[in-house]
């Protein structure tokens, strides 16, 4: 049984705008799934179906094999947490501590459990020092961490992040990538994130869906997707810098294996230099 699945999911904002068109999507336990596509491809609309914010026009959304309904929506939102692109939409309480406590409190948990979850979420995100700060005094990166902490405090099985690096400086991006990479193995979560910055995807994802104009136009591993250079260019996405560089070196006759992430690139370049010595 898949932890999250859609079957022929379609949705229109009005009769003339088809935001999603027959989306078939599967997420398994402990996966890191990237959804890439240009602005307006339908990524955010799809995410809003994953925990019942939007209802399908047609098709199905299944969480652990169950349809989302009024009777299970509270449980679904415990299982599937969403961090929106704009942290200001999610961070609104007088203090960081109160904001992180908001979700678990609304789940009806007792005070001791809420307190423990808040402490743990603040620790995981390394923002204990922000506990008493008002959110409006935080930087964009700090607000993003608080928004994520608020979802983690609900202990979801699926963490969904819509354009998670939006508004972050380079250090904030690197910190977030490191954090997302440990979630599946350390905390057992499935991570699903969207972005139109393709260079970030290879650093996190183990599987990718490509969206364009409300449709899934390709899916596969990092290698399978990023070798489809013509498709990515056609739908307005750039090819990631690292495979583009490796491909250029290969065309110049340099014997080097393909790489997609920074660590892979470092490895194959080191091996290539060792052979030259």
Automatic annotation (TrEMBL):
Name used for this protein in its record: ABC transporter ATP-binding protein
Gene Ontology MF terms: ATP binding; ATP hydrolysis activity; ATPase-coupled transmembrane transporter activity
Protein family (similarity comment): Belongs to the ABC transporter superfamily.
Segments passing through the bilayer: none
One Pfam family per UniProt: ABC_tran
A Gene Ontology BP annotation from the UniProt entry: cobalt ion transport
PROSITE patterns with a match to the protein in the record: ABC_TRANSPORTER_1, ABC_TRANSPORTER_2
Organism: Methanoplanus limicola DSM 2279
